[in-house]
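Annex B. Sample input.
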Amino acid sequence: MTYLQRLNPWCIIRPFPDMRTLIVGRFRRRVDAEGHLRILKQMIPSVPYEIVFDVMPDEVDD
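Annex B, continued. Sample output.
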């Protein structure tokens, strides 16, 4: 995870039926993500979106 991604942990994702996800946007604050999600749902109401908090560990243990 890059430094910029760590600064913006709140994500709007679009889930797909085969368990894949697409990150639509990253935000620093949850309230920003909620506002953007509200607009997305008005523009494209048939597509499901979710807000998630994306946390990745700095190092992966082997």
